[in-house]
From TrEMBL:
Organism this protein belongs to: Sphingomonas yabuuchiae
Listed name of the protein: CheY-like chemotaxis protein
Residues recorded with modification 4-aspartylphosphate: 61
PROSITE patterns reported in the protein's UniProt record: RESPONSE_REGULATORY (PS50110)
UniProt keyword terms in alphabetical order: Phosphoprotein
GO biological process: phosphorelay signal transduction system
Signal peptide: none
Amino acid sequence: MAERTLSGCHILVAEDEFLIADDLRIELGEADAVVVGPVGTLREALEMARSERRIDGAILDVNLGGDLAYPVADILIERRIPLIFTTGYDGGALPTRFATVARCEKPTTITRIAQAIGRVIHRE
């Protein structure tokens, strides 16, 4: 599924765990997506969310090195960019303004994350 739906899509990846970020970069690249980043800090993610001209979707780890990624999500939502959260937090712990944002609860697989971002980009 990811191979078909992500071709040519520019995906922002904000993930502070290097191995997960690298695995996402590889999986998305194999699906012919263009990876924006990956970035591992809130500061970098904010900069990308504000300045990157083309982002078709975003994968945000809720916790970026101890900083919550909510300000990045707010910018992306304002820009009408589909996103998913990856998180080890209980879904109830997220602010209610993000109740409709898709999430992948950790632990999960890189393939499931790639499929989830494909679904939100194409509103499946």
